[in-house]
Amino acid sequence: MYGLLIKEFDQVFEKNARMSDYVKTHCKNKIKLMISGSAPLPGTIFDRWLDISGHKLLERYGMTEIGMAISNPFIQDKTRVRKQGCVGMPLPGVSVKIVDKEHNKELVLEGKANEGFWNPAPDADVVGSIGEPKISGNVYIKGRSVFQSYWQKPEETKAEFEDGWFKTGDTAEYSEGSIKVLGRTSVDIIKSGGFKLSALEIETALHEHPQTTDVAVVGLPDETWGSKVVAIISVKDPDTFSIPRLLVWLEQKLPKQAIPKEVKIISEVPRNAMGKINKKELIVQLYGAGAGADAEPQKQEKVVK
Questions:
Q1: Which residue has the higher pLDDT, 220 or 122?
Q2: Where in the chain is the domain with CATH 2.30.38.10?
């Protein structure tokens, strides 16, 4: 949504300094809060929207089954800031557990009203949020906002809980006092060449390229890498766009193992009414029914040009 608003602003208002000032003043004085969710927020959009409106978008995390559970702070001061790309800390009454099953580690974060992150006092001492060890893993939620059951589906309900914790199906990282969602464990965490890569982090980097208009990153079976990183993108001018130049540009943004092994340009990346991409359907649409994560590895392919 914010991408479309920015596009409209650039087309209609940007060249008129008086109107640009009016929009920014109106947003700052008349609108108390602007939020972002449902999909990752690229840094370019976060920064551009701040420039246009004077607002730092508040990113947060929730699901139908749990309501709103994690959020960046409403209060912004010396000890609390809205970090682009992060969703903040558990809201009061919510417990978040991040489980790294591979290394047998876990971290539980508690949201408490009037304490720490949610202390209404200016420049409150945010005790316990900074200094905790960095950890990434599966996200579990517990709290009063978590649903009790799926309607008349006891077996499905039972499968979604583990020792009283709701299994979100997402993978996240906690570091430096904030939680960062890395993506759906089933489709957004790509195991390639011994590394666990976040498709969302790669997508965020691709979104920052000035010529891309939309992106989706998926993992496809590969004989050499186990899974290879594939970037599916739409661009402003396909005739002049250079994939080799894109890959060189990405070397400044991503670690070597996260650089896509294949780049596919399409006219438009399909999204649903909520603005989300169904990656499993996209893989079937572009590569066929046998190309998903459960398919047999294929021989390594060259980058599509």
A1: 220
A2: 60-182
Q: Report the CATH fold assignment for 189-287.
A: GMP Synthetase; Chain A, domain 3 (3.30.300)
SS3 299: coil
Mean local confidence (pLDDT), 264-288: 89
- Which residues lie across from 221 on neighbouring strands? 227
List b or e across 110-146, with b for residues whose CB sees 16 or more CB atoms inside 10 angstroms: bbbeeebbbbeeeebebeebeeeeebbbbbbbbbeeb
CB contact set of 25 (below 8 Å; sequence gap of 6+): none
Superfamily (CATH H level) for 60-182: Luciferase; Domain 3 (2.30.38.10)
Query: Which pLDDT band holds residue 294 (cuts at 50, 70, 90)?
Result: low
Longest dimension (CA), the chain: 60
Residues facing 58 on adjacent strands: 35
Task: Of 108-112, 237-241, 243-247, 287-291, give the lowest mean pLDDT range.
Answer: 287-291
For residue 76, give the nearest of 54, 52, 95, 109 by alpha carbon.
54
* DSSP states of 164-197: TEEEEEEEEEEETTEEEEEEETTTTEEEETTEEE
- Cα separation, 219 vs 221, whole angstroms: 7
Contacts of 83 (CB under 8 A, 6+ apart): 72, 178
Q: Is there a contact between 161 and 167 (Cβ–Cβ < 8 Å)?
A: yes
- Tell me: the pLDDT tens digits for 95-153? 999 999 989 999 999 998 888 789 888 887 775 555 567 899 999 999 999 999 999 99
- For residue 134, CA distances in Å to 63, 100, 190, 216, 260 come to 24, 11, 20, 27, 26
